[in-house]
Amino acid sequence: MTARQLQAELTLVLRVLLRQPGFWVPTVLFPAMLYAFFGAGLAGSGPAAGYAMASFAVYAVLGVGFYQFGVTVAQDRADPFIRWQRLLPGATSAPWVARIVAGVGFSAVAMGLVLVLGKTLGGVVLADTGGWGRLVMITLLAAGPATLMGTALGSLASARAAVPLANLIFLPLAYLGGLWMPPQMLPETVAAISVWTPTRAMGELAWAALDGRSLPLRFAAVLAGWTAFAAAITWAAQARHGKLNFG
């Protein structure tokens, strides 16, 4: 894969998405709106306000991965242009790398809106000003696994089923991960499941970054496992589609 090919693929991905503002604008704005309506007011002040902001920042990047890229991958499988594109010479990994890069970019916008509201509306004040930078870095790193989980969903689901399935998976994951309420407030059974979810791992990493604590290696390993799992599903499903379509 050359830099020129990657640039061309990234340009294509961005042009396709930017020409559909009715699709990507709500995906980027919704987490910030949800935080403004509920998270900023209900979290109160002090450390809880910062944790709520970090939780919605993770929620933002997860939503971009599931809805913006999960759905588009499912739609691409039925697009004649995409089928023709795959017959062109070049590295087959380039379109997927371009999707991840674009996913991180859109995630940065969605996450940035939440952080701005956290500062202005939620009144979040961090004792350690470096916490803002650490939170941004960890949240953007989480955008990669989130995008891969979205592409895994889109690689398995049809274009019509992608949105309902994204809702069916994304919303429970947000709840199980403690992104809507502190993990200690979850029911005991739910809390036991929570520690093995990718959303809880993303949340724990974000909360630790906010506080300046050492990143919990256990949750880093859980997230790495889910990332590898999502990448394997995407690869296997796309290989199967390629074999069915092109032999």
What's the SSE blueprint?
Layout lengths: L2 H16 L2 H22 L4 H30 L3 H6 L8 H27 L9 H27 L2 H18 L11 H7 L3 H14 L5 H30 L1
Helix pairs in contact: 1-5, 2-3, 2-5, 3-5, 3-6, 3-7, 3-9, 5-6, 6-9, 6-10, 9-10
Written overview of the protein:
- The protein is mainly alpha-helical and 247 residues long.
- It has one domain.
- The chain is built from 10 helices and no strands.
- α2 packs antiparallel against α3 (47-76), α3 packs antiparallel against α7 and α6 (130-156) runs parallel beside α10 (217-246).
- The longest helix has 30 residues, at 47-76.
- The mean pLDDT is 84.
Q: Which spans have pLDDT < 50 for at least 5 consecutive residues?
A: none
The gyration radius over C-alpha positions equals 18 Å
Structural class: mainly alpha
Number of separate domains: 1
Strand/helix succession: HHHHHHHHHH
The main sheet comes to: none
Percent of residues in helical segments? over 70%
For this entry, what is the oligomeric state of its chains? single chain
The general outline is globular
Number of helix segments? 10
Number of strands: 0
End-to-end C-alpha gap: 23 Å
Q: How big a fraction of the residues is strand?
A: under 5%
Mean pLDDT: 84
